[in-house]
Structures are given as C-alpha cells and as structure tokens.
Amino acid sequence: MKNLLIVALLVSASFNAFAQSAVSYHGKKISEKGALPATQLAVKMGDKDKMAAKVEGTVESVCKMKGCWMNVKTGDGQVMRVSFKDYGFFVPKDIVGKTVVMEGTAETTTTPVSELRHYAQDAGKSKEEIEKITEPEKALTFVADGVIVKK
Question: Is the pTM higher than 0.70?
C-alpha cells in the first residue's frame, strides 16, 4: 500500500512538472487574464494610432536568427509584427503555431522597405523574395513588454 502511494505521488509530481513546462515567460512576467484575441485588436483600436493592450494569438513566424521578433496572426490572412521592448528579451525560435499572450503597446506604423527586407532576411527568405519588397508597409504592430508562450 505504501509503495502504491509513493508511485501515485511520483506520477502526480511528474504530471505537474510537465504542465508547468508547457508555458514559458519572456520579458516582464504577465498573466493571461483579460487578453483580447488578436483578431479583435484592430477593431478595439478604432482610430487610435497607439494603445496599451494585452493580446492573445497564434504565432505565424519567428526571427530565425535569435527570436528577436515574431508575427502573430490577426485574421483574414493578415499578421502583426511583434517586437520586444528595448530589444530586452527574445522568444524561442521554434514556436510557430503556438499560442502566445503578450502585453505592451499596439500601434499603427509604416515600416520602410529596408526594414522589411531585413525582416525577410531574418526569416530566411530567398534573395528573389527579398528583392520583391519595394513598397513600405502600413500595418498594425506591437511592442511587447512581456510574452507568455503556451502549448
């Protein structure tokens, strides 16, 4: 009976350890509570150029060099570029398809061609794909203070 109890406790402890490793925190430690789905962020912003927000979404791509940015799906085939406050932290490079919660500032910005080409290079795009980038891009962007990577 004692052995059964000990085995049950060990199994329970291993499940708890696995559950905790399913989430990782980067930058400022934040909570998931009150996160807005990324698909609703543009509507919530309305005419504002800038807004503090907590957002949850799915990672579409990540900087392959060091995890210094990520793109999060916002719906209708669109993505939002997410950078990290003061370049102060990075996210794992293998989180494509995972759910993230991020807290920080959403902003409508115009990204110059040179920066778009830099991002494409970081993402491992071909030289031909990079050369096709010829226009600046106006888009919703996000500067995160903290990120939770789930699942």
Answer: yes
